[in-house]
Amino acid sequence: MMNAANFSRHIRFPLNTLTTINAARLQHVSSGGVFEIGHLWDGFRDLLELMRKWSKARGVPWAVVWCREVAKTGAHHPGEHWHIGHHLPAKHHLDFASQVGRWTDEEFSPNHHLDLSRGQVAFSVHDAWNITKAVRGGGGPEGISAYLGKAEPNRITLYGKTKRNPDKISLKNIGGNGRVEGQRHGISREIHRSAQRAVGFIGPYSKPQGRLHFASFE
Can you tell me the distance from the alpha carbon of 44 to that of 214, in angstroms, rounded to the nearest whole number? Predict the structure, then answer.
């Protein structure tokens, strides 16, 4: 996933937007849109396809990495939530936010422009989803991918010894590793390993054998 992020920068369609959706909450309140399907994995795939078609219709390349996480009871936002890192030019920000409101059946806050924090694009009226953009010094595409990798354990046990997880680039972000039904992580074909190989791209996070860090995310 880290190499996919770096590759998005290489092809000049960097991952510069992070869309986060509290799926469990929206399902709990019987929200419409993609949540009418019932099963969250089906709902997520439906949302991802809607986003892909929306982007393609506007000439925006579908450069995307994503993950589904589950926070424990007692967390600020417990239950399953989705993180989608994608390429989105600034001119489409508000149009996209309006569309996310329709897809999730929860519109963005009418006063969002008064309450936005640094890097925030929009958030919903009941804080069930929010959209942030890359900011200077924020880590760029690789920072987004590292954040999506926070559910990976910081330390692993191998051959009876506990050591730092070599496939986790950042140890700062943790949590969200509860069980999900269906796929947990994904990368769009436009920036996946096969697309990287097709142009001879060797990412900075590649291992000497040619395997990628965060291989379990792909």
Answer: 22
| Beta strands 120-123 and 129-133, pairing class | antiparallel
| Residue numbers of the domain that contains 60 | 1-199
In the numeric block, which tokens belong to residue 11?
């092809």
C-alpha dihedral sign at 144, 145, 151, 153: negative
Question: How do residues 45-103 score in pLDDT, each as one tens digit?
Answer: 999 999 999 999 999 999 999 999 887 655 555 688 999 999 999 999 999 999 999 99
Helix then strand then coil, in percent of the chain rounded to 5, is: 35, 20, 40
CB neighbours of 117 closer than 8 A, spacing ≥ 6? none
Residue 207 lies in a domain: no
Distance of alpha carbon 48 from alpha carbon 52, whole angstroms: 6
In Å, how far are 20, 28, 75, 124, 182 from 104, measured between CA atoms? 12, 13, 22, 10, 20
Domain count, the chain: 1
SS (HEC) of 52-73 = HHHHHHCCCCCCEEEEEEEECC
Higher pLDDT: 102 or 218? It is: 102
- Asked if residue 34 belongs to a domain, the reply is yes
Please indicate, yes or no, if residue 212 is contained in any of the structural domains. no
Separation in Å, CA 174 to CA 11, 28, 29, 118, 170 = 30, 25, 27, 22, 9
Task: List 38's β-bridge partners, or say none.
Answer: none
